[in-house]
Amino acid sequence: MEQVPTSILSNDPCHLGEGPTYDVTTDTAWWFDIREGRLFEAQLGSGAIRVHALGRMASALGRIDAERQLIVAEDGLYIRTLADGAMTLFLPLEADNLDTRSNDCRVHQSGTFWIGTMGKKAELKVGAIYALHRGKISTLFSGISIPNSICFSPDGGTGYFTDTTRAVLYAVPLNPATALPRGEPEVLLRHSGIGGLDGSVCDADGNIWNACWGASRIDVYSPQGERLRSLGVPAKQASCPAFVGPDLSRLLVTSAWQDMDAAARAADPQAGYTFLLEASARGRAEPDVKLA
């Protein structure tokens, strides 16, 4: 396992860090503490960090434009105004089910938003993966327990996802113009050994960078499913990566202290921290979400 230069972006420990993304136009990284309903905002150039209380569990965001974001929360999708943090419901999502919440999500190059939901206690098969396409939500895959690893190939023609409980990373052919499936998911790789498949992001070469929950590492896979690299992370429960920085060469990695007792946290003192890894890779800028 490689030990690359690594720094701490935030030492405010997240109960469940998730959903990192980066706005290249403002050099700003964003991520969530799902369990505590917090949204982190980091100006990478200055190192200044702000934490916003959302009043609900939320797990991901997509940039709409310079003034607005779309927040994926436990009961629906909200438009958040950056100037004042005001949130307005855009569409409900599983709002009538108090036992579920959002989890892993990512915006496709077409502007379509893939959104994962799961049980708040990780109940089996109560979640799903949806697509927000031009203002309407459709169900892509149901019977999901823990949706993760949602990401897309550089040409937009392949989508990836996992149900962490199944330890399988799937690849599904997509219409690049819509991000909607045009075929059935196929097994790309089966995970074995320590840890589990968590959040992922694709780099500019199409490789898949996966946070291996419980194993203190990021694994890099080729589009054919071959493991190419493993990078150490100084927290056991790495949860999701995102490429950041003006040249998108650094890797932001969130982590969590969820389900750790006092002894486990003492043995993993940086659990929940957010890290920057010098990845020596080329990322891709995240696209804006399209609402209409």
From TrEMBL:
- SMP-30/Gluconolactonase/LRE-like region domain location is 16-256
Q: Name one Pfam family in it.
A: SGL
- SUPFAM superfamilies reported in the protein's UniProt record: Calcium-dependent phosphotriesterase (SSF63829)
Q: Which family does it belong to?
A: Belongs to the SMP-30/CGR1 family.
According to UniProt, the name of this protein is SMP-30/gluconolactonase/LRE family protein
Organism, by scientific name, is Bradyrhizobium symbiodeficiens
